[in-house]
Amino acid sequence: MIMAYRKILVPFSGSDRDAGMLSTTFSVAKKFDAFCQVLFIRPEPYQVLPYLGGGSPGLVIPEVIESMNKAAAHACETIRTAMGQAARDNDVEVIEGAPPAGRATARFDVLDGDAGDIAARSSWLSDLALFVGGSENALGLSRALVEVLLSAGRPVLILPRADYVGSVGRNITVAWDGSAEASNAVKGALPFMKQAESVKALSAQDHLNEKGVKTEVTNVLGEYFDLHGVKHSASIVDPMGKAIGEAILKQATTEGSDLLVMGAYGHSRVREMILGGVTQYILDHATIPVLMAH
């Protein structure tokens, strides 16, 4: 159980397209006096060579590698510069070396290799990882997000877009279905909940008029919140034929939530990608920050 966020991981995968997320990232770090590791993952040249095709002339490969290295170097410096500006704007100290405890700091690190593997390994001893979601997210970073969710056991805070500006965690909606994934998300979001102005447990139940409301679904969660001193309320939503993800997201945004907490990939990830699922819908359509855990 995470009682406080002391280390926040912010991975970038060979691109500076999401550099704008750093301002909101540092506002979160400031909220918890946390250390932010801004990690630029530079892809190894061999990772792109298979995509050139077996018939590519040998002379083309060095040119491609050189071009890729230049692009990565440019992206790296762009993110480093953006980090410095965001740190100044949010009164976060940029450091080198070991981070001190008890105040908001940030450090820029660079590692070479596979984005998914490095992001997952780096998150093992982090309390929270931050990503940008959306259906247009870069492939490498999307894979890193999924790897952290599925293999690292860490809560992941996903901003709806890189330039998202607004509060995070003042008014929280918890999409609750009693699953292990939802339980892990609740435990991972406790630091936010302890500082929130409102926390609402939201349960999606089909055909309420016919079957009635099952209050026991949220009662067990309410007891857990009481034990942790989290003030809360509960509500039930009937999807009315809509996808559950759509119903949950609509209810959360209608109620003015600035953080949706939910479990991720309760079904197989492949099944969700092919057939659709709550996780994939939220990742593609969320307009507010989402905290997920598997």
SSE blueprint:
Blueprint: E1 7-13, H1 22-32, E2 35-42, H2 60-89, E3 93-94, E4 105-112, H3 115-123, E5 128-132, H4 139-151, E6 156-159, E7 171-175, H5 180-188, H6 190-195, E8 198-204, H7 208-211, H8 216-227, E9 233-237, H9 244-254, E10 259-263, H10 269-275, H11 278-285, E11 290-293
Parallel strand pairs: 1-2, 1-5, 2-4, 3-4, 5-6, 7-8, 7-10, 8-9, 10-11
Antiparallel strand pairs: 6-11
Helix pairs in contact: 1-2, 3-4, 9-11
Please characterize this protein's 3D structure:
- With 294 residues, the protein is an alpha/beta fold.
- It contains eleven helices and eleven strands.
- The protein has helices at residues 22-32, 60-89, 115-123, 139-151, 180-188, 190-195, 208-211, 216-227, 244-254, 269-275, 278-285; strands spanning 7-13, 35-42, 93-94, 105-112, 128-132, 156-159, 171-175, 198-204, 233-237, 259-263, 290-293.
- The chain folds into two domains: 7-157, Rossmann fold (3-Layer(aba) Sandwich); 171-293, HUPs (Rossmann fold).
What are the key terms here?
single chain; 294 residues; alpha/beta; Rossmann fold; eleven-stranded mixed sheet; 11 helices; 11 strands; 41% helix; 20% strand
- Describe the global form: globular
Q: What percent of residues are in strands?
A: 15-25%
Helical residue percent band: 40-55%
The total of helices stands at 11
CATH topology of the largest domain: Rossmann fold
Give me the count of strands.
11
Describe the main β-sheet briefly. 11 strands, mixed
- Within CATH, the superfamily of the largest domain carries the name HUPs
| Proper CATH architecture of the largest domain | 3-Layer(aba) Sandwich
CA radius of gyration? 20 Å
Task: Give the low-confidence spans.
Answer: 271-275
Please provide the ordered H/E string of secondary-structure elements. EHEHEEHEHEEHHEHHEHEHHE
Termini separation: 14 Å
Strand order of the largest sheet: 3-4-2-1-5-6-11-10-7-8-9
Kindly state the mean pLDDT as a whole number? 87
Number of domains: 2
Structural class: alpha/beta
| CATH class category of the largest domain | Alpha Beta
